[in-house]
UniProtKB/TrEMBL annotation:
EC code: 4.1.1.20
Function according to Swiss-Prot or TrEMBL: Specifically catalyzes the decarboxylation of meso-diaminopimelate (meso-DAP) to L-lysine.
Protein name: Diaminopimelate decarboxylase
Orn/DAP/Arg decarboxylase 2 C-terminal domain mapped to chain residues: 30-372
Alphabetical UniProt keywords: Amino-acid biosynthesis, Decarboxylase, Lyase, Lysine biosynthesis, Pyridoxal phosphate
Domain spans labelled Orn/DAP/Arg decarboxylase 2 N-terminal: 35-283
Species: Thioalbus denitrificans
Gene Ontology terms, MF aspect: diaminopimelate decarboxylase activity; pyridoxal phosphate binding
Binding site for pyridoxal 5'-phosphate: 239, 276-279, 374
GO terms (BP aspect): lysine biosynthetic process via diaminopimelate
Residues engaged in binding substrate: 279, 315, 319, 347, 374
Record's subunit section: Homodimer.
């Protein structure tokens, strides 16, 4: 459930008509709903009530400071993959003690900064990273809490680009090597082994792969226990899918129940569960607003050329993702026509949606739904296009949480070579 709805013939975010926000801030424009963010975060938190747990929102899905601060105020933890994301969390008032640091390529200076601010845990992805982290922690005279990201080799049955838990993927350490890697970690003086983690993919619409992965991870936890290594937490990553069109992903409560079911017995009851949801919290809490610049009718197709493009929202171009496109003020004075909704970027792959039935005139406003996750964060300046502005709606109030980028900012860091 989200807080975008039609009322009196126009699309609203909470209590504000989206057309009014577009009139004030221009397009392309991302608009997020605070009530939706909070509702989705609470759904995860409540689903694990009664079992020790922590929700570490995956910053990569949407790292806007306004979004992060809403979640930080709920007491959320954060899953980061770079020092840039760490600085965002800190700037938004997030608690470093609730941060987990994932990613296959952590640089030394990133480790140093994360240790300095005292993050909760490093999700280590290779044996080489263990050695490096031990050295860096030793240099600054501290101990790093670690979990090993294991690769449970389960098929997440999602798009191959966002499937991460198969043997052939670059992520994590194989189940076979894990006990040895843990033994090494336990031997290193500047590491403290606290957990295990896995993340098998994104946009999962079925609980079975999560359950399969957890069964394998529990097997490892038990094996480590008999080797004398006791873990305190088990991080199952993110990956719960959302409805873009007609998908029926499990609700957080169903997902959590399936996991809890496997952890109910005495031996595992005290293991803290960490989840790293990104998409399921923000995707349907955001829309991308865009204006129709031109309509172009050819013998083969009708095009609606809009002012947002693949540089603003890459998912349709990169994954062939389908996201709903809705008029802010549905018309009854024009016939419904099949349009390809395309941007101004010079690539045939620059489209937001294909064959959408819409009644349109030049200047009309559209909303691309489910754009809160992996929308702005994957945007670029391709074709020297400044990045969109972002607005957070809170009841009847709107807050500009990122102003539109200016053209001069695009080359502010560049310089001319000497003559
Ligand atoms: N934890 C780790 C270690 C991850 O790699 C990811 C996502 C998450 C958590 C959050 O997963 P989520 O709950 O959002 O599914 N750009 C793609 C999605 C890439 C996901 C990468 N990792 C898309 O737009 O579909």
């Amino acid at each position: 459930m989200d807080h975008f709805h039609y009322q009196d013939g126009e699309l609203f975010a909470e209590e504000v008509p989206l057309a009014a926000i577009a009139a004030e801030h221009g397009t392309p424009l991302y608009v997020y709903s605070r009530a939706t963010l909070e509702r989705h975060w609470h759904a995860f938190d409540r689903a694990l009530e009664g079992h020790p747990h922590r929700i570490c929102y995956a910053v990569k899905a949407n790292g806007n400071l306004g979004v992060l601060s809403v979640l930080a105020r709920l007491g959320s933890g954060f899953d980061i993959v770079s020092v840039g994301e760490l600085e965002r969390v800190l700037a938004a008032g997030g608690d470093p003690a609730k941060v987990v640091f994932s990613g296959v390529g952590k640089r030394e200076e990133e480790m140093r900064r994360a240790l300095e601010v005292g993050i909760h845990c490093f999700n280590v992805e290779s044996e080489a990273e263990l050695e490096r982290l031990d050295r860096v922690a030793g240099e600054i005279g501290t101990r790093a809490r670690i979990s090993l990201r294991v690769n449970p080799d389960v098929d997440a049955r999602t798009h191959p680009y966002i499937s991460t838990g198969l043997k052939e993927n670059k992520f994590g350490i194989s189940m076979e090597r894990a006990p040895e890697a843990y033994a090494r970690a336990a031997d290193l003086a500047h590491l403290e082994v606290v957990g295990v983690d896995c993340h098998i993919g994104s946009q999962l619409t079925d609980v079975t792969p999560f359950v399969d992965a957890l069964e394998r991870v529990i097997g490892l936890v038990d094996r480590l226990k008999s080797d004398g290594i006791r873990l305190r937490h088990l991080d199952m990553g993110g990956g719960l899918g959302v409805r873009y069109r007609d998908e029926t992903p499990p609700e957080p409560i169903v997902h959590a129940a399936a996991l809890r079911n496997l952890l109910e017995d005495r031996a595992h009851r005290d293991l803290e569960i960490i989840l790293e949801p990104g998409r399921a919290i923000v995707a349907n809490a955001g829309v991308l607003l865009t204006r129709v610049e031109y309509l172009k009718h050819t013998d083969h197709k009708n095009f609606a050329i809009v002012d947002a493009a693949m540089n603003d929202l890459l998912r349709p171009s990169l994954y062939g993702a389908w996201q709903a496109i809705l008029p802010l003020r549905p018309r009854t004075d024009l016939p419904l026509t099949l349009y390809d909704v395309v941007g101004p970027v010079c690539e045939t792959g620059d489209f937001l949606g294909k064959e959408r039935e819409l009644a349109l005139a030049e200047g009309d406003l559209l909303a691309v739904r489910s754009a809160g996750a992996y929308g702005f964060t994957m945007s670029s300046n391709y074709n020297a296009r400044p990045r969109a502005a972002e607005v957070l709606v809170d009841g009847t109030a709107t807050h500009l949480v990122r102003r539109r980028e200016r053209v001069a900012e695009l080359f502010a860091g560049e310089s001319l070579p000497p003559a």
